[in-house]
Task: inverse folding
């Protein structure tokens, strides 16, 4: 084999190695980027219970914005994901009242925030519920949450307010099943 053929063979091997190295770096960068995005920015979540029907159904696959509450405060009407205060699982509920609010629940299934009756247009009209008459003030860095399916929701009526530190995301999009694809806007009342 001539010196020129060895040099060409060596150059081809170097070129193949460099191309392989470039592809490996691109794949590793993609994996690292996807992991960082999932851990710190957006996380997929599967709705675990029927407590948010009809807004969210059991098994709906949604995306959660994990950065939202790093830069903005939790607002009434937001649908949030948080760590359950009574079980080792994550829950999904709607924020009804925030820090400093006075919330009143009535036996006629009415809710008053700071003396004003709220209108919850997202609720199914066929819910036949009643609440225990009570008034409470929401503490610092806490929120009061309820499921949209009031008859089938273990929420702040039973376990009290949720510390904002237990909230890990705000729902932004249903992406599966395709027939339910939709963005979640803000529903302040």
Result:
């Amino acid at each position: 084999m001539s010196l020129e053929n060895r040099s060409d063979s060596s150059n081809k091997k170097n070129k193949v190695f460099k191309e392989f190295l470039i592809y490996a770096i691109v794949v590793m960068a993609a994996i690292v980027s996807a992991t960082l995005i999932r851990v710190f920015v957006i996380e997929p979540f599967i709705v675990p219970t029927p407590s948010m029907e009809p807004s969210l159904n059991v098994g709906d696959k949604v995306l959660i914005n994990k950065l939202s509450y790093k830069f903005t405060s939790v607002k009434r009407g937001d649908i949030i994901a948080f760590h359950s205060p009574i079980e080792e699982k994550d829950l999904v509920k709607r924020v009804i009242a925030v820090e400093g609010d006075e919330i009143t629940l009535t036996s006629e299934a009415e809710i008053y925030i700071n003396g004003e009756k709220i209108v919850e247009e997202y609720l199914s009209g066929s819910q036949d519920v009643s609440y225990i008459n009570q008034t409470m003030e929401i503490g610092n860095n806490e929120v009061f949450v309820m499921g949209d399916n009031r008859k089938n929701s273990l929420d702040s009526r039973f376990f009290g307010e949720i510390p904002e530190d237990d909230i890990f995301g705000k729902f932004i999009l249903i992406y599966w099943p395709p027939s339910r694809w939709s963005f979640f806007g803000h529903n302040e009342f």
